[in-house]
């Protein structure tokens, strides 16, 4: 293990940027890089050191957090499959926070160990707002000593971390958590569509749900967004579709039935195909609307969605 005290952070997207900012604002000596250099500017203003490449981050830091889009981006940053891989990961701790396939993560852990490095899975539960507030929930997998060190590092980012055993236990747990999240929000969108087409007040529906036993921070935020047709991104359609695909593939690999996730995967695929990949996950209501030929009960003066989701009156 190298001796530097700095911590690296690579990947400053929707989740990565607020997570890295929380680390920098907590006084962590942070070294950062992002493919789109402009994303580094808030980190520089917060005191982080911005470097010119991912290789520079890995060279300077004994621990580096990765919050990248997918497996290909992770392999590229680490130089996996190239002569540079061993030099970038040997003697270093790589903390992978992205949601990727568990099988991929397991093989990556083996390759890093063979090169003399340490590997920790640390996917998180939560979207942009919890990330900004430092209230994510972390799931950790790896060697016990590494987990202890990473748990302390994540204190400014996660309000709680859970040990999930050996790799790929954390990613499998993340997919289980996401199964509940995705089916819950999709069910909420379907309930909102059902209520609207029956001429009910969507804000009243949201208030009733908020007062009852099914209420949660997620349901409150998403029900309000549905009531106001606010599709501003928190957790994007494309990201949820990627997660849905990972869940369905993991289920198939394990021989596990996933009937609700199969339906959600189809709906999020349809939503992305409508050009709504950058919208919040509640925009899945647009795919549900597109499947509706006409309201079940003709409600007088009820606002309904037109063929492109625009609201109109009868």
Secondary structure blueprint with pairings:
Blueprint: E1 7-10, H1 16-25, E2 30-33, H2 41-45, E3 49-50, H3 54-60, E4 63-66, H4 71-78, H5 85-89, E5 93-96, H6 102-114, E6 118-121, E7 124-125, H7 128-133, E8 136-140, H8 144-153, E9 158-163, H9 169-197, H10 202-211, H11 217-227, H12 237-254, H13 259-273, H14 284-291, E10 304-305, E11 311-312
Parallel strand pairs: 1-2, 1-4, 2-3, 4-5, 5-6, 8-9
Antiparallel strand pairs: 7-8, 10-11
Q: Structural class of the secondary elements?
A: alpha/beta
Within the largest sheet, what's the order of strands? Answer: 3-2-1-4-5-6
> Tally the helices: what do you get?
14
User: What is the average per-residue confidence, as pLDDT, rounded to a whole number?
Assistant: 92
Low-confidence stretches: 295-314
Task: Count every beta strand, where a strand is a DSSP E run of 2 or more residues.
Answer: 11
Task: Provide structural commentary.
This protein has 314 residues and is α/β, with parallel strands linked by helices. Helices cover 49% and strands 12% of the residues. Strands 3-2-1-4-5-6 form a six-stranded parallel sheet, sandwiched between helices. Strands 7-8-9 form a three-stranded mixed sheet. Helix 1 links the parallel strand 1 and strand 2 (30-33). Helix 9 (169-197) crosses helix 12 (237-254) and helix 9 (169-197) crosses helix 14. It is globular and about 60 Å long. Mean pLDDT is 92; it is low at 295-314.
Task: Describe the structure concisely.
By secondary structure, this protein is an alpha/beta fold.
